Amino acid sequence: MKNIGIEQISLAFGFIILLLGLWGTLTQKNIIKIVLSFTLFDTGLNIIIVAIGYLRNKTAPIIDSAELQKDTVNKVVDPLPQALVLTSIVIGVGVTALMLVYVLKLYKEKKSLIINDYKDLKW
Amino acid sequence: MLKNSLILVLIIGFAATMYSLFASYTPKENLSGVSKHYVENGKEEVGAANLVTAIVLTYRGFDTLGEVSILFLTAAIIGFFLKVEHGDSIVNEKVKRYSEILGTGAKVLIPMMILLGVYVFVNGHLTPGGGFQGGAIIASAFVLMFIALPHHTISHKVLSVVESFSGLGYVLIGVLGVVLAAGFLDNQILSLGTFGTILSAGAIPVIYILVGLKVGTELTGIISNLKEIQNEQE
Amino acid sequence: MLYIIITVVLGIVMIVMSIIAIHHKNNTLAVLSAGGVSLVASILYLLLAAPDVALTEAAIGSGLTTIIFFYVLNKIKKQNHVEE
Predict the structure, then answer these.
(1) ∠A66-A67-A69 over CA atoms, to 5°?
(2) Among B42, B141, B182, C42, whose Cα sits 20 to 30 Å from the Cα of A41?
(3) CA distance C15 to chain A (A)
(4) For position B227, what pLDDT does the model report?
(5) How close B180 comes to chain C (CA, Å)?
(6) CA geometry: angle at B204 spanning B174 and A88, to 5°?
């Protein structure tokens, strides 16, 4: 139990939320709950990516004081995963908006929010 | 019953994979590889104080171009699905009058929210912030206007003109980078200035202003489409 | 040591809110709980030394996603009332 830091605890919680989101996608019958589980899946994945780039006892990658300008390599956290997560969050909201518009069009056809009533593509 | 047990097996398989990934993770001590090059040379080559901005706009500029085009595609598809024939005249028929306190409070708050959004994306290279965050704050200000002051409308033509010109300007600056400097979206087409002031880091403030306007008007357009179908009849 | 306790408490709050989001019958409470998960994740990003990501997640993930869900739920309820 020695040497557990913030990044390992955040990694564990990120994995648990990702698994909860995946389980919600597979077992729920209400379409709104399925779209909500996709949102939880995205959030868990982003927590995992940011937690991997954390180094202990170092600070945020913004050079705003004079002492950070001298020895920057040994004092900042990894900035590359943060740049990737920035893109991922914006694309996540775009995909969620598109899924919800499809839910609206499906509801206009058959007036039901349960996914078992849409059997048109089953053979 | 078979489907439930298959789902359980799938989840347990995923959980075992993730547990093995988690148990074999050792925390790092120092930067290494590509990140070390970005942190060491970011200050001289790019000139921005915010290293995440320097990576998103210059070192990984193509990823940002891809993200901007995905957002544009999403807004276009949603606008196509939620088309209303006579959109601008439906609001005044059956909207009841909202309360005075909400309307007056919103009239005080909305200009300040727009000012905060513009501040966040103009100072994107010095403090945490940037185009995407500033655009989301501007979209939230317009959502407050839609909810609290329903008689003020925004015409779709203005939104789509601003969005198209911002996207075109972003690609034009990228092509100017090919013509005048080292590569696509290089920021040395304008001079690098002194470190830490607003007019530093070359073309990065200009690019972020265009990205902030584009993202803000796109998200506002999506929510305005969703609002206009609320009042249409079947 | 203090940071470890704060992280564990935030993690447990996130897990409870996500279980409410998946299992509750009322759609409105489920959407609000998912917005709450995003908000607590934004605080966690601040503890992990990532202020840019925290700003983006709070503005886009917690604010705009919840608003889009509520517009869609309102339209579905109105179509239900027009039917009956």
Answers:
(1) 70
(2) B141
(3) 7
(4) 86
(5) 31
(6) 80
Domain count, chain C: 1
Dist. CA B185–CA B189, nearest whole Å = 9
Report the alpha-carbon angle C76-B71-A118, nearest 5: 35
- Say which amino acid occupies B189: I
Give the distance from residue C32's alpha carbon to the nearest chain A alpha carbon, in angstroms.
10
Structural domain range at position A84: 6-62+70-117
Neighbors of chain B with 3 or more C-beta pairs under 8 Å: A, C
Taken as a whole, chain A contains a residue count of: 123
Q: For residue B39, is it within any domain?
A: no
Look at residue A1 and tell me if it is in a domain.
no
What is the domain count for chain B? 1
Question: Using one digit for the tens of pLDDT, what is the confidence trace for A7-64?
Answer: 889 999 999 999 999 999 999 999 999 999 999 999 999 999 999 989 888 888 888 7
* Residue A123, domain member (yes or no): no
Distance (Å, whole) CA B224 – CA C68:
11
> pTM of the full predicted structure?
0.90
> Is residue A25 assigned to a domain?
yes
Q: Do A22 and B14 touch (CB under 8 A)?
A: yes
A33 to C15: CB separation less than 8 angstroms, yes or no: no
Average pLDDT, chain A: 88
Residue B53 contacts residue B124 (beta carbons within 8 Å): yes
User: C43: domain range?
Assistant: 2-83
Enumerate the H helices of B29-154 as residue ranges. 34-45, 51-54, 61-81, 91-94, 100-122, 131-148
- Show the domain range for B121: 48-228
